[in-house]
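Purpose: get a first structural picture of the assembly so the mutagenesis plan has something to point at.
Setup: two entries, given in the order below. No constraints added.
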Amino acid sequence: MTAAIRAANTDGRAALVIYLPAGYPDLETSRACLEAAAGAGADLLEVGFPYSDPLMDGPTIQAANQVALDAGCTPDDDFAVCARLTAAVDVPTLVMTYYNLAWHYPGPGQEGRATAGSSRADGLDDFAAACRAAGLAGAILPDLPAEEGARWRKAAAGGDLDTVFLAAPTSRDHRLQAVADASTGFVYATSTLGVTGERQSLSAMAGPLVTRLRDVTDRPVCVGIGVTTGAHAAEVAGFADGVIVGSAAVRAAGEGGPEAVAALVRELADGCRRSASVA
Amino acid sequence: MTTPTIAPPDLSHYGRFGGRFVPEALIAALDELEAAFHSAQADEAFGARMSELRRHYGGRPTPLYLAERLSAHAAGPDGAAARIYLKREDLAHTGSHKLCNVLGQGLLTERMGKRRIIAETGAGQHGVAAATIAALLGMECIVYMGEEDCRRQRLNVIRMRLMGAEVVPVTSGTRTLKDAINETMRDWVTNVETTHYLIGSVVGPHPFPMIVREYVKVIGEEVRAELLGREGRLPDAVVACVGGGSNAMGLFHPFIGDTDVRLVGVEAGGDGVDTGRHAATLSGGSEGILHGARSFVLQDDYGQVRPTHSVSAGLDYPGVGPEHAWLHDTGRATYTSATDEQALEGFRLLCELEGIIPALEPAHAVVPTVELARRLGPDAVVVLNLSGRGDKDVDEVAEVLRMVDA
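Result (structure tokens, whole complex):
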């Protein structure tokens, strides 16, 4: 993943990271949308695994999640989407979901885990193995802060997966160090305080956060949350190594399927390029 | 007053339960809150102000009432059952135990220099308490409440609005308490620098379960002191309803070290734990991570949180505080459940035998208390935490019992 981001940077642009949830508007179309994003210039893909209580997500992604859950999508369906996707495209792909879903993987048939007993295994090793088997390069678990992340990092290391942790504008310096130390692949800098969703303008908090991260790590820093348009992408590309876009892509997927996603990604990719060449 | 307790291994975890599973954006606020709490605990002026407000504004200590007719009912015609005491939290200001917590957290909010309070509510008791404290301290207050709960608990919606709070109906997910918490968390992630999340129970990421417990444990401390004075002994059992678990933790905590005192939690059994339509998290759930803590959760095998059902909006929640998970796992406390039907029976018993209209939440604990009193026999003493009054529930109960003329 780091290599893909650095390759884009060497090419004079910020890496473009596109998030779309599996199963929205349906499993097949979600795969087609992700492939279209890769074809139109995305350097990395994030596949969301829908969860019942997505507390880091705003209305657009919540609604998309709910469509997939109502249709009965399970994590194994989501992994199947990933497996076909990673076989068809050559951009690194991550899973993005909430900790409880990874913790319970693979789900039914694991009753022994959750019942009484002194030492309880969780599903994190199985989840990491499934990620690997589906050709995924890493995972983002936004409700898992670095201090609770040791168990997941161990499981991810076993599956040779990158672990991406979030840094926030409110993170103090010692925490930025912990986030950077726990992250491999890249560090996810949240541009603003708030949940995922489209914004009119980019938060002024993003630049200073990236600057502070530069002081504690050499890893690539990608900026997400609220990056909506090509102009936003251009702005972010001026100071960050990567640009992450979710809700705008989800809206495009819902409104116009793969063609609309491709059109948006072209606009965003153009933004990434234009600004990086200026900067 | 000092009471013996079994301390969990560290302040942020209860055995393997607890912790903080929240987005990074909130961690600084949790650290700030924890620091403010510890500094306030060491500040005599803060403690004095809280005691003063608890007493003269909140009506503490609340009475401990020997319910003779309920005890006689438990005894039956053969005449042998324990003495049942009711801890009258229903007589506290705002009509429930919730004021203890919001008073403490409200003063902490002021100490942190924040002027905006957000809160979730199920039955509306916590929302009313939060609106109350916001009015008292001159703060802005936003309460998130599931759309379905707004309907069920209309009276409390009006009370909150009368005190100047904004009530935001939540239409996402199951439209009940779980989704109200999600919405409040989303607001907090967005406005964390100016806003305190005044959480309403012993749930959520550390330090919330610890802070809320420290503010509500006055309930058990009062019971302990009062009983030692009147009976010259500790109770044989203390019983409380458990949703998130704040009133139960408040009652249990000062007795955790007294291993002869049984701690009994009663969860909402809905249509019956075996039907799947219930909210009995410890009785019918499994381990997982919800709302920032590792605890027990009502969820499917994949970890997707399940819809819950209870006649009582305040217990209609698929999670439970991590310290309760620890008490359950270690066997120190026992958790049982009462169905909607049993809760309604408990409701009627207190109305008809004692002239007390209880909230539907503690009404769940009445029938299990009666059964326990019968089992323990005439020399025993059982304390039931009557955590709130039932004015808010009369419409719902009348409808369920078809008491209103068509």
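Residues 27-41 of chain B form the longest helix (15 residues).
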